[in-house]
Amino acid sequence: METVDPDVHYKGISRIDREIKRTHGWYVRVFYKGQQRVKFFSDMLYDGREGALAAALDFRDEAERELGKPRTDRPVVTVSRRNATGKIGVTRVRRKDRNRKGEVYLRDVYEITWCPRPNEIHRTSVSVRKYGEEEARKRAFMIRDNKEREIFGKVVSQTPSAEELAILDHDELST
Questions:
Q1: Residues 62 and 112 in one domain
Q2: 113: three-class secondary structure by DSSP
Q3: Whether 94 and 153 share a structural domain
Q4: Statement to judge: residues 105 and 170 lie in one domain
């Protein structure tokens, strides 16, 4: 077992000290893809603050394994209602660029973003004009999946099915 430091912040674990209720311990919350695991670890039941924290860390790590969540202290976002493409980290944008003569033109692209390290954002894009709508989207999803594998060891965001993509495309046309 690793040594634990009660003064360090651990992702998904909060300290609860309520004198009025005589409640002291660590509260663990693990959320992933619509599922959750929650448990309280009382100092009294685990021989003090450090023992309760060690048990809380073990529970958190086991819950993440059980849910399939990558063990990282970084946020892991898998779905978002605000995403119009259906895939986290992939957006369809109209980019303003200049040609060699300095003339401004617009081009449609799928932009892929990822964070290989905290506070470091990388991005690339796939041209809709060059590949067509469907192939550009497929390529963008594939690039994002590869980046997630590099960062988390596996794909963590969901790729929409053909039916979901048809609904998203219909919604875009009606707005």
A1: no
A2: strand
A3: yes
A4: yes
Task: Give me the residue label for tokens 């399939």.
Answer: 68
Is 140 within 8 Å of 112 (Cβ atoms)? yes
The amino acid that residue 2 corresponds to is E
Distances (CA, A) of 22 to 4, 6, 40: 23, 19, 14
CA–CA distance, 7 with 25 (Å, rounded to integer):
13
For every residue of 21-81, DSSP letters joined together read GTEEEEEEEEEETTEEEEEEEETTTTTSHHHHHHHHHHHHHHHHHHHT----SS------T
Residue pLDDT, tens place only, 128-173: 999 999 999 999 999 999 998 898 888 877 776 666 666 555 454 4
Cα angle 131-162-125, degrees, rounded to a multiple of 5: 30
Other Cβ atoms within 10 Å of 124 Cβ, number: 14
Question: Which pLDDT tens digit goes with each residue over 50-96?
Answer: 999 999 999 999 999 998 887 877 766 666 667 778 888 899 999 98
| Domain around 163 | 90-174
Phi, psi angles (nearest 5°) of residue 168: -60, -45
Identify the three-state secondary structure at position 2. coil
How many domains, in total, are found in the chain? 2
Query: Could you give the CA distance from residue 164 to residue 169 in angstroms, rounded to a whole number?
Result: 9
Locate 91 and state its tokens: 């957006």
